Fold:
Amino acid sequence: MNLILEKTKAVRYFTNMGSVFKALKLSASSFDWYVSDVETNYYGDEFKSEDQWLSGVELGRFVATNDVQFIWAVFSAFPIGTRFEVTEPPIVEGNADYWSGREVKPQLSGALFEIAAWDSSATILIGLPGDAEENFKATYPEVKSLASAAR
Structure:
């Protein structure tokens, strides 16, 4: 099931990836990441708001040492060692598939799952492994099915 967390006071702000990984009980370093369609409140040199591949170690270190809000972004998780040229990067803003009312898959072929920051007001989780989904639901009982939240 795909999930959405929105309209809750259980998070300080949407989307803090450190908090998301903690709730999922997943380590960013267990995956490689393609990060796209990024807008954030971070203005330092450690992270660029451009489409890019990051190792899980790089992403994990960044979110652990910086209190960053991702306003818009798509984080696509891949098995470690995955790299390929991305010709159509995943998008979050304007992605009508999220609101179609049907179960959608990660946008990039081969992605294990996808985490999207939606306009600093929601976190969208696509294709999570079952244990990570259950962990997230236990942390945030108000999370709901993305299909039921279709707009």
Remarks:
- Helices lie at 17-24, 56-65, 130-139.
- The chain has a mean pLDDT of 94.
- Strands lie at 3-6, 32-40, 52-55, 70-78, 113-118, 122-126, 144-145.
